[in-house]
């Protein structure tokens, strides 16, 4: 079964997406305290306030592209937040994709995939924190955190797979790299929202703060695509970042979107309502 949002929602999506990481400066006069890096409010249409940090950008096509944006609640939208905020009776949890953040950190898995490093780069240390970026679904993580959702990480699920049995709803972000124990715990849960395509794509081992790629993403053989041979893999949909016709498909244990909603999640009230109500 496939559910598509009503036409009115599609219109909302058309107008609300497309700027997540190509952000323009509103003012360079916003000054933080003398001991802090200057925080700059960005002129972005959003349900939240969005900030960049001085010198933390690169120039792409003549525009400043901020590397690590920060989301904060906008007091003007407090009434809306009250409707969207997580409530304890929802009994939901979000799994932060820290293994995926580690895999994308350079040098790492993608250094190896590009042929710039040998197999030593498919074992990487999992750090305590990573910058909030597109690959680790940084927008989605920040938004759901601000709305009060309980957050755990890949590490929590790998160490104690039964933890997911404590929740009625599980929300995945871009959890592309997971362990076998985590994969089993997630796919056995009866109610999962796979909020980003390309989840559960490759198998890693986690040991003593390091992850190692075991299978998937054309490793160890080129013909191996999904490391778990998962029948519900929807990775081909991750390249639609516009989400102009966003919808959700029903699978055995939950729902999957037909696009990568990183640029929509902080702007669409309807999408956030869907997440809350699924």
Which key features would you list for this structure?
single chain; 278 residues; alpha/beta; 2 domains; seven-stranded mixed sheet; four-stranded mixed sheet; 8 helices; disordered N terminus
Could you characterize the architecture of this molecule?
This protein has eight helices and 16 strands. It is α/β, with parallel strands linked by helices and 278 residues long. It has a seven-stranded mixed β-sheet. A four-stranded mixed β-sheet has the order 8-14-13-11. A three-stranded antiparallel β-sheet has the order 2-3-6. Strand 13 (202-207) and strand 14 (210-215) form a beta hairpin. The longest helix has 10 residues, at 7-16. The model is unreliable at 1-35 (pLDDT under 50).
Number of strands: 16
Computed structural class: alpha/beta
The oligomeric state is single chain
Q: List low-confidence stretches.
A: 1-35
Strand order of the largest sheet: 1-15-16-12-10-7-9
Query: What is the rounded Rg?
Result: 19 Å
Query: Based on CA inertia axes, which overall geometry fits?
Result: globular
- State the separation between the terminal residues, measured CA to CA: 15 Å
Q: What percent strand?
A: 15-25%
Counted by DSSP, the helix tally is 8
Q: Tell me about the largest β-sheet.
A: 7 strands, mixed
Order of helices and strands: EHEEEEEHEHHEHEHEEHEEEEEH
Mean pLDDT: 86
Count the domains: 2
Helicity, in percent? 10-25%
């Amino acid at each position: 079964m496939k559910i598509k949002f009503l036409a009115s929602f599609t219109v909302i999506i058309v107008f609300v997406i497309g700027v997540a990481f190509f952000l323009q400066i509103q003012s360079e006069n916003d000054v933080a305290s003398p001991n802090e890096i200057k925080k700059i409010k960005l002129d972005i249409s959003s349900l939240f306030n969005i900030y960049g940090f001085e010198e933390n950008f690169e120039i792409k096509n003549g525009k400043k592209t901020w590397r690590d944006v920060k989301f904060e609640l906008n007091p003007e939208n407090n009434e809306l937040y009250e409707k969207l905020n997580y409530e304890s009776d929802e009994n939901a949890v979000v799994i932060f994709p820290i293994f995926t953040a580690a895999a994308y950190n350079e040098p790492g898995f993608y250094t190896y995939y590009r042929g710039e490093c040998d197999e030593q780069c498919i074992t990487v240390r999992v750090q305590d924190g990573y910058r909030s970026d597109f690959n680790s679904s940084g927008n989605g993580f920040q938004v759901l955190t601000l709305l009060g959702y309980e957050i755990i990480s890949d590490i929590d699920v790998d160490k104690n797979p039964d933890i997911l049995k404590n929740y009625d709803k599980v929300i995945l972000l871009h959890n592309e790299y997971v362990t076998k124990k985590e994969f089993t715990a997630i796919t056995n849960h009866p109610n999962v929202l796979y909020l980003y395509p390309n989840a559960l794509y490759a198998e890693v081992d986690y040991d003593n703060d390091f992850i190692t790629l075991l299978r998937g993403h054309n490793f160890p053989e080129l013909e191996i695509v999904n490391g778990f041979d998962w029948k519900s893999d929807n990775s081909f949909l991750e390249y639609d970042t516009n989400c102009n016709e966003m919808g959700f498909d029903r699978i055995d244990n939950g729902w999957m979107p037909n696009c990568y909603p990183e640029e929509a999640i902080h702007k669409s009230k309807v999408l956030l309502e869907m997440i809350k109500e699924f």
